Amino acid sequence: MQAELTDSEGLERILKVMRQTFRNGSTIKTITPETTADDVNGWDSLTHTLFIMALEDEFAVTLPIEATLEAANIGDLMRLIAAAQ
Amino acid sequence: MKKVVIYGNCQADGIFDLLKQLPQVTERFSLAYHFVRSAPEDVDRQRQEAQEADVLLAQDIGDWSYYAFRDDYRPDTQIVRFPFLYLASLWPFDSHQNPPDTKAQAEFGQHSPWDFPFQDSLLGRLRAEEPDPERRFETYRELTVDGLPNLVRYHEAETARLRLMDRKSDYGLGQYVIDNFRQKSLFHTITHPTAHLLMTVAARILAPVGLELDIDAPVSDRLSVFQPPLHPLVADKLNLEWVTPEQTYSFYGRPVDFDTYVRKYIEVYG
Lengths: 85, 270
Prior knowledge:
Strand content of chain B: 5-15%
Structural class of chain B: alpha/beta
Shape of chain A: globular
CATH topology of the largest domain in chain B: Rossmann fold
CATH superfamily of chain A: ACP-like
Oligomer: heterodimer
Structural class of chain A: mainly alpha
Helix content of chain B: 25-40%
Distance between the termini of chain A: 8 Å
CATH topology of chain A: Non-ribosomal Peptide Synthetase Peptidyl Carrier Protein, Chain A
Number of helices of chain B: 11
Largest sheet of chain A: none
Number of helices of chain A: 5
């Protein structure tokens, strides 16, 4: 399962969620596992929780919130999603 | 007299405003406030304030890394960090944490005295999905629309965030919010705590400086001037005891209830 989420399909689904969730989300062109909140316009402490809620809906999982807050980048979030599936 | 600089966003400014009102503070401390970004005309004065400060009360926000005067403080300046407090689950559709209502955002300032500084993302979305104003109001009132966050789950996540915040600071302010938000209003808006909560923050962060604040001291609550109403279904789901069916909120000093506020938003922004 984790292998599926490290591929481009997993990234594409996360990118879709980001575009729907963040201010100016439509301007986000691409993400990689190394992408951090600092790299994404609109991904901040206020928007993080709803982003995680949207990821839970997209992947039909329940994520450990504190771990998502300490995730360093998209790759960490992908691992949390994979572990929750 | 000790010199204190308070650094941070509007919440830090709110603490500054409250502390200025307290003789027990102003008799012992001179106070200065530094916003996250300095206006050019303030740079020289603020640099001097930083160089002379005995105490820096610094809000723990991302902008801290860009604070222009960080390196101007003396090594012996006492630095007290305090958190940025909010409980976003109280206003789940606010534009601060959602895609903006771009029409309302663009027209802000054009509809005085009915300008809405806190725009509503869901009402913006429904403008396209439900053209009839009354049906749009009902849809928003009952939240009969797809794609909304689970309000209870969202609050669970916000609670977890506050608990994590507490583990990284010494003041237990997240737990204070968790323990009290159902019994009393702690926030006027998503980013504006009440004077009571700001006094609680001030009392806890000033204790290490040797000051015991009376959090019930009478103060003017400047941030109370604008209060976006809480959605009744949010109040219900989160069991907010202080929100009554007749609850009114301040719209620049005018009391408005939830229905009036939402209908006016729809009327103003179409």
